[in-house]
Give the backbone structure.
Amino acid sequence: MNASMVSWDSRTFRNTMGQFSTGVVIATGMLRGEPAGFAAQSFVSLSLDPPLIAVCPGKTSTSWPKLREAGKFCINVLAADQKAVCDTMAKSGIDKFASIPWRAGTTGSPIIEGVIAWIDCQLEAEHEAGDHTIAVGRVVNLGVDAPEKSPLLFFQGRYGLFTGL
Ligand SMILES: Cc1cc2nc3c(=O)[nH]c(=O)nc-3n(C[C@H](O)[C@H](O)[C@H](O)COP(=O)(O)O)c2cc1C
């Protein structure tokens, strides 16, 4: 069968992609003294030498342009007890940091209290990718705050916990 003859709708695409379980991160940054951030599952460790990561903001994101302008951002790896943080950071147009405690990382970007780990980055490059962008960060500092905690997982559109086999 010729590949161009195969068709599927966006629901089938989303449903199929939803079978791949991921963790959840919050990409944060600081612009003119104001914190900004958004929830993401499109995070990957990209390169060891040089130390690079990637995260993929949507073209409709109102937070990413602030992180881009700041030229630096921090990836916060959420723990299972931080679903409420994820819900807040996934909403657009609100004061997301009103009730979320954080400290400033090396780049000044927020490190959210209670995360498992954080990866502080300089924005290295951006690559167009359809309705999203592949944003590459060069790691300038990183740390594990709570290795004992279980991560927040996302699978089939639902949140979950990690249990080792
Ligand atoms: C579990 C989860 C994963 C998400 N992953 C992404 C992602 O990888 N990229 C993205 O741009 N938005 C993702 N979103 C949606 C954004 O968090 C949401 O569109 C964004 O926070 C909107 O706010 P903004 O306008 O302040 O950017 C995700 C949302 C949830 C709940």
Observations:
- The chain is about 15% helix and 40% strand.
